[in-house]
Amino acid sequence: MSEYLVEIQSLKKYFTKTSGLFKKTQKHIKAVDNVNFGIKKGETLGLVGESGCGKSTTGRTVLKLYQPTAGRIIYDGVDITDYNEKQMLPYRKKMQMIFQDPYASLNSRMTISDIIGEAIDTHKVASSNGERDDIIATLLQRVGLMKDHASRYPHEFSGGQRQRIGIARALAVNPEFIICDEPISALDVSIQAQVVNMLEEIQAETGMGYLFIAHDLSMVKHISNRIGVMYLGQLVEIGNSDEIYSNPQHPYTKALLSAIPIPDPTSEKSKQRIILEGDVPSPLNPPSGCRFRTRCRYAQPKCSDVEPELKTLDATHQVSCHLY
Amino acid sequence: MEKEKVLEVQGLETSFFTHLGEVQSVRNVSFDIYKGEVVGIVGESGSGKSITCMSIMKLLQHPGKIKNGKVLFKGQDLVTKTAKEMRQIQGDEISMIFQDPMTALNPVYTIGNQMTEVIRAHKDLSQAQADEIAIKMLEAVGIPSPEQRVKNYPHEFSGGMRQRAIIAMALSCEPELLIADEPTTALDVTIQAQILDLLKGLREKLDTSIIFITHDLGVIAELCDRVIVMYGGMMMEEATVTELFANPQNPYTIGLLKSVPNPETLTKQTLVPIPGSPPDMLHPPKGCAFCSRCEFAVKKCLDEMPEIYEITPGHRTRCHMHHPNVPKELRARLGGSAAK
């Protein structure tokens, strides 16, 4: 029995891009390249990085919404990598997802009770129609809505309320693990804290594991126990969230953290900011060796030749950089 | 020292006359912008911050209309100007940067083409001279090898570079006032840091006044000299940046500051969210726009729109708590709540 609820080992997801006459030439976009991590029960792992770094693809591959190119996905000690859809069905009940855009993720032609009830029906959670209605009512109350909202349609709700409906839908089948893919980035500041607090309460009640994907680093720090930093499809640093913020080791993590604007003008003025030059290179043609070397100020000749491996600094903190 | 006023907005009211009724997007907004300062306007979506700036630029689309108020730019009232007269000012003396760098450029013209179009529309220059300015501006915003880059089309630029090109375009006629409408919201944090750094540098060089619209309090803290907080189409509070963060005096500002985590504190913070959601501007509340979500709300807040009170010079807030008849102890609760 492994100590992790969900564990991924050397996970890879390549997308193939074809071009040329008869689509002969093939190129691989290495969206996720050799990523390892584990999430325990009741723990939140935050995944951060710039857009295009592969954090959402990682999340979707863990749920096998994409079939991984290589690597293993282990859920509660069982290797589910090669399971087919039928074998996956019981695991679909255990793993759920909350999506970024509350406007696109709810079917506008279904009522709220249909949206939440769909999963209940698929997984046969309720034995009777009465029980189904009860479950939906309890869920709606759990996420701070009212039970008579069940007969309404998504357009009657605000963005924050829709995100609550999305959360209720994920909770409907009593999952053990939820992937939150940027669940707050489409919401207003005053609403974000409502949703984050609710996610934390639900976790405290049920002991669920979260994979929290976001680019808002201050919120990620707030909600996560551990944080993984991704760059161009690779995990460059992973550690406890306080450790990552107070003692970042990878040059990319340092730059990323120094770029967060702090809502406090006094500390903002005294802060040393590391400005990264240029943009993220194309994942179609990533730099050789260390992928960050083109923007790294500590880059040495070795960095372009040898790809750094994830090295363990202490029990919880790992970093992939030749400096260590 | 009395600084020169670049822009004075007085009692601005803008409404959209839809088939469902009048939506009062901007309600009685007044503020001044001085030369060379950066003023942040912060607020949630629908708070009227963008519409305020669209009204200043007179870029409102039908059915939007300025109902009342004055926008004095260097002493002239922009509200009464015709579209033709405004075109002389737009892009020349006042220019604007938009949120989405992907859609703000025309994909079928080169960057250079689009830049020189602006320059030649306002200045009597030859194409060659305009090209020279375009190259110089691209260099100023940190685009490498600008001589080649002016010949590129927008799709050959990354998001951050497009936003730089748009900033270069906006500044090419050396405007007195630059309005930036969430210019970094669509960008990654590392690119956002590059753009904010660029704006800080340009501001010192060119002495341009900037109105910076955002919903990110962190960006405000980093870039701005003064802040205006908007909610439900109204100005809730106005103060210098240091004053606003250290001593917020409006329940909405206090709530906003408590609902964002500060990544620098090591201990686990509890976020205190503002309950409820923003008001429906089709049927705005009769009294204070924030009263349904405010922990200090009393009956008066429901019935009567609060006035703006000046607490200390430059620090203004719209809240009944600051009425001179409210006992000091009661008002102290505001400060106590902010400190928590």
Outline the structure in words:
- The complex is a heterodimer of chains A (324) and B (340).
- Chain A is globular and about 70 Å long.
- Chain A has helices spanning 55-62, 85-94, 112-122, 129-142, 159-171, 189-206, 217-223, 241-246, 251-258, 265-270, 301-305; strands at residues 6-19, 25-39, 44-48, 70-75, 78-79, 95-98, 177-181, 209-213, 226-231, 234-240, 311-314, 317-319.
- Chain A has eleven helices and twelve strands.
- Chain B is of the alpha/beta class.
- Chain B is 34% helix and 24% strand.
- An eight-stranded mixed sheet of chain B has the order 6-7-8-3-9-10-12-11, sandwiched between helices.
- In chain B, strand 7, helix 7 and strand 8 form a beta-alpha-beta unit.
- The radius of gyration of chain B is 21 Å and the shape is globular.
- Chain B starts with a strand and ends with a helix.
Could you list some keywords that capture this structure?
heterodimer, A: 324 residues, 4-stranded antiparallel sheet, 11 helices, 33% helix, B: 340 residues, alpha/beta, 12 strands, 34% helix
- Placed side by side, the strands forming the largest sheet of chain A appear as 6-7-8-3-9-10-12-11
Low-confidence runs of chain B (pLDDT<50, min 5 residues)?
Answer: none
Task: Give the tally of β-strands of chain B.
Answer: 12
Q: Strand order, biggest sheet of chain B?
A: 6-7-8-3-9-10-12-11
The residue-averaged pLDDT of chain B reads 89
Mean pLDDT of chain A: 90
The radius of gyration computed from the alpha-carbon positions of chain B, rounded to a whole number of angstroms, is 21 Å
Beta-strand percentage range of chain A: 15-25%
First-to-last CA distance of chain A:
32 Å
What's the helix-strand series of chain B? Answer: EEEHEEHEHHHHEHEHEEHHHEEH
Count of DSSP H/I helices of chain A: 11
Strand percentage of chain B lies at: 15-25%
Q: Kindly report how far apart the N and C termini of chain B lie.
A: 36 Å
Q: List the helices and strands of chain A in order.
A: EEEHEEHEHHHEHEHEEHHHHEE
State the helical fraction of chain A. 25-40%
Helix/sheet category of chain A: alpha/beta
Shape of chain B: globular
Uncertain segments of chain A are: none
- Over all CA atoms, what is the radius of gyration of chain A? 21 Å
SS elements, strand count of chain A = 12
